[in-house]
Amino acid sequence: MKLIDERIYLRPVQLADAPLFLKHTEDEEIRYMTGTKARFSVEQIERHIEQTQQDDTRYDFAICLNATDQLVGELSVLDIDPDNQSAGFRIMMNAMELRGKGYGTEAIELILAFVFQELKLNRLQLEVYSHNERGLRAYEKNGFKREGVLREALYLNGTFSDEIIMAVIRRDYLKARS
Length: 178
Known about the structure:
Blueprint: E1 3-4, E2 8-12, H1 18-25, H2 28-34, H3 42-53, E3 59-65, E4 71-81, E5 86-93, H4 103-118, E6 123-129, H5 133-141, E7 145-156, E8 159-169, H6 170-177
Helix pairs in contact: 1-3
């Protein structure tokens, strides 16, 4: 399955992506924005990719540029709960040299259409740390609303950050599109 937009496309994550994902997990700015403390090996990332490919409660996509096929990020729709018509969401933009160009926002727009039009879900939820201001802006721009705060939930680099719970629901998504 491939989801295509004007400048980017989403394709399923592949085992061949593991070395690049490893490189990105070692980037200190990415680690800070995502609150990542653990270190990984390429074998661990490969096992994770294999496990997620077998998990029917999630979709994992690589975000790639149409013009060059460069992988610039990854995202997941996870913990899909058909009974409650809900799922979780995470996104990580890896190509730090391309930040601020709207690729993350475009990827979120693509995945919202997939979640609400294809999967027919009602709710998509994420958690983001308060120090990730770019992420917060991108989520709000795409209709996510702040629903709660876990105060000082992360201690990293000598400071505490809040964990902000955000979600977008189908009726708000449809209303914004009309």
